[in-house]
Design a protein that fits this description.
alpha+beta, 2 domains, four-stranded antiparallel beta sheet, about 35% strand
């Protein structure tokens, strides 16, 4: 199974990754400054899904995994960002 390849890095702003396979998944992380003390993290994931029951099954599995993974990932990012800001 191929892994994500970095397509683009804009330091302190954006990370774009992509998998070169039949599903063409991409994952984008963008930091959007709101003001001097606040930054919004925007994350977008896209993937092609096959039509029909098999594609629906994989999509549901992916969404369920995201429900578990996303809060933990965001919590970890928040902890590290707040710790770094306090240094």
């Amino acid at each position: 199974m191929p892994g994500y390849k970095v397509v683009s890095i804009e330091p302190e702003r954006a990370l774009v990754t992509h998998i070169d396979d039949e599903n063409g998944a991409s994952w984008v992380w963008v930091l959007d400054p709101i003001d001097a003390a606040t930054t919004r993290l925007i994350v977008r994931f896209r993937q092609k899904w096959e039509p029909g029951l098999m594609g629906l099954t994989f999509w549901i599995g992916d969404e369920l995994g995201s429900l578990v993974m996303q809060p933990k990932t965001l919590s970890g990012i928040k902890q590290r960002a707040e710790a770094a800001a306090g240094q």
